[in-house]
Amino acid sequence: MLKIIGYDGEEIETMNIDDIDNEYYNVIWVDCYDPSDEELLQLSKNIGIEIEELKIGLDELEVPRVEEEDEYYLIIYKAPLFEEDITTTSFGIFIKDNIILTIHIDKINSIGKIYSLLKTKKPKTFLDRGKGFFLYSLLNQITISYSRIMLNLDDEIDRLEEVLLQHQDKNITTEILQLRKTLVYFHKALVSNKDVLSILKRKYLPITTQDDREHIEDLYYDTLQLIDMETTYRELLVSMMDMGISLENIRMNQIMKILTMITALFAIPMWITGIYGMNFEYMPLLNNPFGFWIIFGITIMSIIFVLYIFSIEKWIK
Known about the structure:
This protein has helices spanning about 35-45, 50-55, 110-120, 125, 130-165, 170-200, 210-275, 290-310, and strands at about 1-5, 10-15, 25-35, 65-70, 75-80, 85-95, 100-105.
């Protein structure tokens, strides 16, 4: 699917791929989402970039980087991906002359957000300051998306910690492991993005101005903070897993303690009744009219004695 917007310095216009005019528009943004072979062919023909090069941006496992070709620049970047689980995906940004092409196989919410902002607000906010500032705005929106997810993860970790202290079940452990998996994806993506931003902020590329590089430098430090947050959250989740295992061991020890107390309480009575359950003709108190009550009293006293021992040892509170 292709979405094409052209900005002439005053307003934006939606156009078709065959209507691209490099001379009339100051900035042209082409967003290419999960394109068909025919759309890729049209895109390659009208923009002048080989199909095989365009397919690089469609590889969701492509490593983030900046490539400087003779006629265009290629930037591979990682964005959060919202599916059943929160992961990350790679997408490509091609910049040639006044054309900015974003190409991706997965639906990226941050790109959709930029498109919505362009359609609902004044386009001058993003496009009047050139393609370098638009590039910054796009990368900034992705960074904001990471930040929002991190804040939500903070609340989720607090919730899991509270639930973990109350009780533990397999669902809690599964949720913790899933969050750790998400943070591992984020760590790889953010570190790779940091390297891309490091190049963009210090390398004097024709596609960016000095102001653009200063904005990108701010993004670089924001990404560093996100990496620190992600590392802290992963350490918290590891601590929560250790705490969960410790709490489970404590609960198991409590259960074993209770079972041991029950066994000890009935050990002497079972021993006494076991002896008198033998088929012998001559046994103490066997023919005594008060024999049952004497044995019963001894049994009760043994139970009371064991309970007294437990109270001394503070097994019973």
